[in-house]
Design goal:
Helices cover 28% and strands 26% of the residues. It is an alpha+beta fold. It folds into two domains: 2-103 and 227-268, Alpha-Beta Plaits (2-Layer Sandwich); 106-218, Alpha-Beta Plaits, CATH 3.30.70.660. The model has no long low-confidence stretch (mean pLDDT 94).
Length: 270
Amino acid sequence: MRYAIRLAYLGGNYHGFQSQPNMKTVEGTLLEALKKVGWITDPKKAYYNYAGRTDQGVNALCQTIAFNTEKKLILPALNTNLPRDMRCWAYAQVPESFDPRRDALLRTYKYYAIYEGENLRQMKRAASLLKGTHDFRNLCTPKPNERTVRTLFESKIEKRGDILVFTFASKGFLWKMVRKTVTAIREIGRGKKPLQYVKELLDPNYTPRGGVSPADPEGLILFDVKYPFDFQVDEVSKKMFLDALYKNYIRGRTRAQVCSAMMSELEKAK
């Protein structure tokens, strides 16, 4: 049987999602736990795969992994072999052909940042210009020969008290695309760049001097990955991660907002 599992984690203690030699990563930690409970022995033979990579420090609420196993899935059993800042909290039985990366219908990222007096109106206008299909070459770190055209179905900013919440939704994102986009929008909000800067960055023939630096990873969450099916929430596992988020809540204002957002969404999950 093939299963898809929702994985939530706080990325601050890991060198990104993908396994790396001699590095503590989300994937490496997860695979150790999966092997320990006997759900998989060889990731390749289990056709193990995941929805996408996240960088060092980036968080996830709905990272999705898939694998084949003959074992019965009891999520709390897996979670007792995971650290407190990482929990699998929902699952679904899926077709043998299911690929969590290729079959994703929509990915949503949220970025949380402390408001520093930026011009919110200008930032909202900048975000609206990014919506649609564009070449994001100047707002990512592309791989060799990678196609950099993407479609943003959602690109918006909200101000909640003294926190800015950026939301971006697309079928697929490029490496560092969200974090560089946040930087560019905030530069406009701070008056360091004109609104025209967005159109310049979306021109593949334009090369910004010095490039665009990615925003700090701590505020970024892989918030949702949609598929043409629903997941069954395991209430015990959900509560385990809610408890862990609550204990992390006091670690700085940005971290508090990230944890609060993840807690709020998890509490709504049925």
